[in-house]
Amino acid sequence: MSNDSSNPNIVILGAGGSGSRVAHHLSQSSPKKYNIILVDQRGYYIHWPAMIRMVVAADHHIAENALIPLDKNWVDGNGKLVVGKVESILPAKGSTGGEVVLQSGERIPYAILVLATGSTFEGPLALPDTKPETVQWAQDWHKRIDAARSIVLVGGGAVGAEMAGEIKDIWPEKKVTLVHGDRALLNDTYPEKFRQCVAQGLSSRGVEFLFSDYVDTLPAPGESVTTRNGKILQADLVIPTRGGKPNTDLIRAAFPNTVDAQGRVTVLPTLQIPGHPTVFAAGDITSLPEQKQVAKYPSHASLISSNILALTAGQAPEKKYKPQIEMILITNGKTGGSAYVGLLWGLMLGDWFARTMKSKELLVGMARKALGYS
Predict the structure, then answer these.
(1) Where are its TM segments located (predicted)?
(2) Chain-centre distance of CA 93, in angstroms?
(3) Are 330 and 198 in contact (CB under 8 A)?
(4) What dotted CATH number matches 123-243+325-370?
(5) Does domain 9-121+245-312 have CATH number 3.40.50.10300?
(6) pTM score of the predicted model
(7) Cβ count near 22 (within 10 Å)
(8) How many C-beta atoms lie closer than 10 Å to residue 229's C-beta?
(9) What is the three-class DSSP state of 90?
(10) Does residue 4 have a pLDDT over 90?
(11) Strands across the sheet with 337-341, in order?
(12) What is the distance of C-alpha 89 from the center of its chain?
């Protein structure tokens, strides 16, 4: 790959589980006469499965190892990382291509664009943009949780369930109540039996549940919580654990007819966005009918990379994405958890499997290896 500024750019927005992999594949494949530019506001990879434990436990080891530099993601130096926040995307009128404008004022033209902007989070997972700030952020949240005798978690998806287990690992005596809008934890992608199994594991540790109810407004610290159904919960600390929202505001502004009512980007089977043949989307932001999980995104990245290489060779992208089987592993602290694999009749696995595969180490080593670190 040439780094000639006169060559057209392939620009990838977002260095998460899909964007970082697209950058790696293209770096390895070296499309001729194209520059590869990866843009991210942080400049390092966040291994999200480890972040809940990092903020609950203020674990310096996790902060050191799960916020992973991107310097080894390039093959033979083929590529460039630009650290900065994107202010706008400006598609060229009447043609393909366009440019990305950063808050710094820098303008980066693109011939091919990959949208991999991921999710935005609230509460403990709304991480700052630098490693030192993130370490301090985790310490501050640890202190808040430590000082609270009773805690309400708002949202019973994977984030809420795993945070409940992490809190109970360190403070088994704390009162933890999890409020969830559905009739059981997670969502109906997963069978009822598995959802009940996850709840039972947490219940055995003293976690309490309020199902089919919502907290619409987070109270001030120390104030009681009133749910949508009028239930009053006493809590020293209320933590939003509702999971991420697709980070697509800038995409909606640039490509207004491609973002649906849920904030997700409509994609063709080739993962191109309709009406824009040189723009691709991957990861959390896509409207693909599958649960949003980082384990699926290497497949997104591999397909997009192949289709981009076809474009750069003057060919039509032909590879089409097929949604993957659903599987999930919910940790319950460091030593337990529950897993579901959507094969055959649906396989369910318990504490030993969860501890061996994820709970103990949170897949940090696997993430580091994928980015070139041991």
Answers:
(1) none
(2) 32
(3) yes
(4) 3.50.50.60
(5) no
(6) 0.96
(7) 29
(8) 9
(9) strand
(10) no
(11) 327-331, 337-341, 347-349
(12) 21
Backbone angles phi, psi at 284, to 5 degrees: -55, -30
What integer pLDDT is reported at residue 222 of this predicted model? 82
Domain range summary for the chain, segments of one domain joined by +: 9-121+245-312, 123-243+325-370
Q: Which of 344, 339, 357, 346 is nearest to 198 (CA)?
A: 339
Q: Which of 261, 246, 255, 313 is nearest to 280 (CA)?
A: 255
Structure confidence by residue, pLDDT tens digits, 272-295? 999 999 999 999 999 999 999 999
How far is the C-alpha of 101 from the C-alpha of 78, rounded, in Å? 23
Residues 344-352: contacts with CB under 8 Å, at least 24 apart: 346/191, 346/194, 348/193, 348/194, 348/197, 350/197, 351/201
Is it true that 9-121+245-312 and 123-243+325-370 share their CATH fold? yes
Question: Nearest-CA neighbor of 280 among 12, 42, 14?
Answer: 12
Task: Name the more confident of 325 and 5.
Answer: 325
Amino acid letter, residue 353: F
Tokens of residue 8, six digits: 């057209």
- 314 CB-near residues (< 8 Å, 6+ apart): none
Mapped onto helix, strand or coil, the DSSP state of residue 177 is strand
AA identity, residue 238: V
